[in-house]
């Protein structure tokens, strides 16, 4: 049996895409997914069931346009007895017309039905005058822009601060459902116990529904805090195959820019390790084929103390030089001890031995690297990402930011999913560096550069559009912060206002690649209440599995 899912990145208005996962599990079927821009599988192949879920009104029109060239083939399939499962308003796409006020939209005309929209409170997406497609056309004074782009729709910033959207250079989608969780009997006294008792316990129980819900939760929370680009490092050892594809579906649906990888580790045995390697390799192949400017792939690895030499060799062979690696390095001293005791090399030296380092590789944390390792990182052009809140919360130390920065290492900032608020991480990064160095006049330039300059440089190594800046030709990734200063405010002191006055929750409007994702704190084309309900059910299941009770 062959099932084709049409346009899953658009068709999930009420979380209907969960039905896809249900069908995958219940039926011994070959499943195919057709994304916008792809030729549908049914064009040249036989299918038993074509499934399309609910969508927004704007998506209806896009899908009608996409399917119109294949109308006759669809007509033949219907006449030949092919089954169609159309939920919600998907059936309207196949009807004659859709009436929207004074406007009439022609459907595919394959079903004898008409539809009428009655949406008195429908939210319309708006385009800022400086946009054209996915990029900024022009930046200038309001009066001049209004005159030049007289026909443009205007988003009222309401006196807020217009800024480039944030980039999170290291996070973990799999931890999104852990907020508020306490695992019975888990009382860690060191970092290894934190990993084994909390995070590995979570990811061992994370199935595909949980992965999807985790992605939805993290992406929505990111949108609400002005983050439009995410470098994620995922683990879900309960169910590995297809997880990066599921996450990418959510990223596309919700409109963010994502660089994804899967966490390879030997900790759960060879079979799981090989599945993780294959997931990375398959997703890299997929991204290369899609050539989507909003989606990229890295090759993920957990940390050196859970990866053998044999596994590193397998990773390098599967990657075959196609992309960089994303791996935790010297986050805790156990990582250093393991490398020295079992391999006679420090962690960074061991990575160099296996060809893991390079300009497209991210080393997360690097708390306990020595000066010789720093030199290797610099000489290979390898990137480092600091995650200050996570490091302090796990009581594992503080990254030597000042030393790394002075050596010219490309040093960015992430959250490790401790939070999705990049401004919160900025504040903690500054305080932790001053505390570590016992100097109240250090860290300012370093941490602001990490967030606003270096994260954009990291993004440039994986995405074609220029990020992190408001200028003509750059990506239209823009946020508006609801911040009303009560002291002098200018380009001379905006860093101080952000550090001491702003929080991520003050983001009122978020735009990614020219698409309005949130306006005036209301998510656009996303039913937040329905999404939260789905996430809650997934969290209850995960927590119940972990604690052997019902929530």
Description:
The model is unreliable at 119-131 (pLDDT under 50). The chain folds into two domains: 2-116, 3-Layer(aba) Sandwich (Rossmann fold); 163-523, Metal-dependent hydrolases (TIM Barrel), CATH 3.20.20.140. Helix 7 packs across helix 19. The chain starts with a strand and ends with a helix. The chain is α/β, with parallel strands linked by helices and 551 residues long. A five-stranded antiparallel sheet has the order 10-20-21-22-23, with no helix packed on it. Helices cover 39% and strands 17% of the residues. The chain contains 19 helices and 23 strands.
Task: Briefly summarize what is shown.
The protein is of the alpha/beta class and 551 residues long. Helix 13 (371-380) links the parallel strand 17 (362-365) and strand 18.
Instruction: Examine the secondary-structure arrangement and name the CATH architecture of the largest domain.
Output: Alpha-Beta Barrel
- How many helix segments? 19
Low-confidence stretches: 119-131
The average pLDDT score comes to 92
The CATH homologous superfamily of the largest domain is named Metal-dependent hydrolases
Structural class: alpha/beta
Task: Bin the strand percentage.
Answer: 15-25%
The count of strands amounts to 23
Which shape, going by the Cα principal axes? globular
CATH class of the largest domain: Alpha Beta
C-alpha Rg, in Å?
24 Å
Q: Strand arrangement, largest sheet?
A: 10-20-21-22-23
Please indicate the count of domains: 2
How far apart are the first and last residues' alpha carbons, in Å? 37 Å
What is the third-level CATH name, the topology of the largest domain?
TIM Barrel
> Mind describing the biggest β-sheet?
5 strands, antiparallel
Helix content: 25-40%
């Amino acid at each position: 049996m062959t099932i084709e899912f049409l346009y899953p990145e658009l068709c999930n208005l009420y979380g209907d895409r969960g039905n896809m996962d249900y069908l995958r599990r219940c039926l011994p079927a070959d499943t195919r997914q057709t994304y916008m821009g792809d030729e549908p599988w049914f064009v040249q192949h036989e299918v038993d069931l074509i499934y399309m879920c609910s969508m927004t009104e704007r998506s209806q029109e896009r899908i009608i346009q996409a399917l119109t060239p294949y109308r006759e083939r669809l007509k033949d399939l219907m006449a030949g007895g092919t089954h169609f499962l159309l939920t919600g308003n998907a059936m309207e796409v196949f009807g004659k017309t859709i009436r929207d006020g004074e406007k009439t939209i022609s459907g595919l005309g394959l079903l004898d039905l008409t539809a009428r929209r009655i949406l008195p409170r429908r939210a319309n997406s708006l385009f800022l005058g400086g946009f054209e497609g996915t990029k900024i056309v022009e930046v200038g004074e309001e009066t001049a822009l209004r005159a030049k782009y007289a026909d443009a729709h205007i988003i009222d910033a309401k006196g807020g601060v217009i800024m480039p959207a944030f980039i999170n250079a290291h996070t973990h989608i799999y931890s999104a459902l852990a907020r508020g969780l306490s695992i019975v009997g888990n009382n860690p006294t060191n970092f290894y116990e934190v990993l084994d008792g909390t995070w590995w316990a979570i990811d061992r129980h994370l199935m595909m529904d949980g992965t999807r819900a985790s992605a939805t939760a993290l992406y929505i929370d990111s949108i609400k805090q002005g983050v439009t680009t995410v470098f994620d490092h995922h683990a879900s050892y309960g169910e590995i195959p297809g997880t990066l594809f599921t996450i990418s579906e959510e990223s596309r649906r919700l409109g963010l820019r994502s660089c994804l990888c899967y966490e390879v580790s030997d900790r759960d045995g060879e079979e799981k390790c090989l599945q993780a390697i294959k997931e990375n390799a398959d997703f890299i192949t997929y991204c290369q084929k899609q050539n989507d400017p909003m989606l990229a792939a890295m090759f993920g690895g957990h940390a050196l103390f859970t990866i053998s030499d044999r596994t590193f060799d397998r990773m390098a062979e599967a990657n075959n030089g196609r992309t960089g690696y994303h791996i935790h390095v010297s986050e805790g001293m156990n990582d250093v001890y393991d490398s020295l005791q079992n391999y006679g090399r420090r962690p960074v030296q061991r990575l160099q031995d296996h060809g893991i380092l390079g300009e497209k590789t991210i080393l997360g944390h690097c708390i306990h690297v020595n000066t010789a390792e720093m030199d290797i990182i610099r000489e290979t052009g390898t990137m480092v990402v600091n995650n200050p809140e996570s490091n302090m919360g796990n009581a594992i130390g503080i990254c030597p930011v000042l030393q790394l920065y002075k050596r010219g290492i490309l040093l960015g900032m992430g959250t490790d999913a401790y939070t999705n608020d990049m401004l919160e991480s900025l504040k903690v990064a500054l305080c932790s560096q001053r505390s570590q160095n016992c100097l109240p006049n250090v860290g300012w330039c370093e941490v602001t550069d990490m967030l606003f300059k270096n994260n954009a440089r990291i993004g440039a190594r994986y995405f074609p559009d220029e990020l992190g800046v408001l200028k003509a030709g750059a990506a239209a990734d823009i946020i508006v912060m609801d911040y009303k200063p009560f002291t002098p405010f200018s380009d001379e002191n905006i860093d101080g206002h952000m550090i001491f006055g702003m929080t991520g929750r003050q983001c009122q409007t978020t735009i990614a690649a020219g698409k309005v994702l949130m306006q005036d704190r209301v998510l656009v084309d996303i039913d937040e209440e329905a999404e939260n309900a789905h996430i809650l059910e997934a969290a209850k299941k995960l927590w119940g599995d972990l604690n052997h009770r019902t929530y």
